[in-house]
Amino acid sequence: MHHHNTGGIAIDSYACNSRLRHISAGFKAGFSMLLLLFCIFADHPVISVLLILFAASVTVFLGGIPLHDYLSVLGIPVFFVLLGGIAIAVDLSLQPTGDFYLNLFFCYLCVTYAGILKAFFLMLKVFGAVSCMFLMTLSTPSHELFAVLHKIHCPSLFTELMHMIYRYIFILLEVQHNMQISAEARLGFCDFRTSCYSFGQIAANLFIVALKKANAYYDAMEARCYDGTLCFLEEKKKLPLPYIIASGTFFLFLVVLWLFIR
User: Given CB 3.0 to 4.6 Å as the disulfide criterion, which of 38, 101, 117, 155 pairs with 110?
Assistant: First the structure.
């Protein structure tokens, strides 16, 4: 199992150990995408907040993922969401306009209440959509998701490239992490000049290792009778009726609430 970052967050590990893994991957993927599309379509902060809380509750309490680990996973996209929100809320102007402004000598950094609200609501919507995606990925192993894509007749080349790129990225991340630990053990980051040198050495070595890993990856596939098509192992899973009823009830509740508050 390959960790998805050097902080120890292994999304596939969580998905494989989730208590929701026994549920049909197609159902989880379809329901998560339905919630994601509804979050974008509804475009209402109340719906976004409800989806954030729902996804967190299902993943933590039903899936069995520790709350601290779930928040750590969500911390990955939070940084990008905040940057996007700041870019929307803040404007540059040659004249002092808006409710707040800061003189930067050559221009003004302007902020309005309307811009702050717009950015906040947009961040809620994006975070709600991201939570729906994590609801799927933290309960469904990657190979099952690729099998679902294959089942809905996505082009084989598309799903196979996704699978190989997905795996290969994390193989290289693991190699890079080991190189960085080795460099740190040799005081390779003790000052700025040494850090730049170590970074260059790691980048150069990583490029060489990437080529070797690519050849080894292909040789391993050939040894397993690869004929140009990847076959994804599928496990037949039941779809318990209570999950269908609960999911349908929650989605119906969201629709009724949206019609009432819009």
Answer: 101
- pLDDT tens sequence across 178-230: 888 888 888 888 888 888 888 888 888 888 888 888 888 888 888 887 777 77
Q: What is the pTM of this model?
A: 0.77
Between 129 and 15, whose confidence is greater?
129
d(CA 50, CA 28): 18
Query: Per DSSP, what are the bridge partners of residue 101?
Result: 110
Question: Counting Cβ atoms within 10 Å, is residue 55 exposed (0-12), middle (13-18) or buried (19+)?
Answer: buried
Alpha carbon separation from 66 to 19, 45, 57, 73, 74 (Å, rounded) = 12, 26, 11, 11, 13
CA 207/CA 199 separation, integer angstroms = 12
As a whole number of angstroms, the distance between CA 236 and CA 151 comes to 13
d(C-alpha 5, C-alpha 78), whole Å: 16
Residue 170 to residue 3: CA distance in whole angstroms:
7
User: What are the C-alpha distances in Å from 51 to residues 116, 241, 262?
Assistant: 22, 22, 16
Residue in 145, 164, 137, 131 with CA at minimum distance from that of residue 230? 164
Measured distance CA(230)–CA(236) in Å, rounded? 19
Beta-carbon contacts of residue 186 (< 8 Å; ≥ 6 apart): none
Residues in the chain: 262
Query: CA–CA separation, 160 vs 47, rounded Å?
Result: 35
Q: Is the dihedral of CA 164, 169, 170, 175 positive or negative?
A: positive
Please tell me what DSSP assigns to residue 59. I
The answer to whether 147 touches 234, Cβ cutoff 8 Å, is yes
Say how far apart CA 102 and CA 106 lie, in whole Å: 11
Using DSSP, state whether 91 is helix, strand or coil: strand
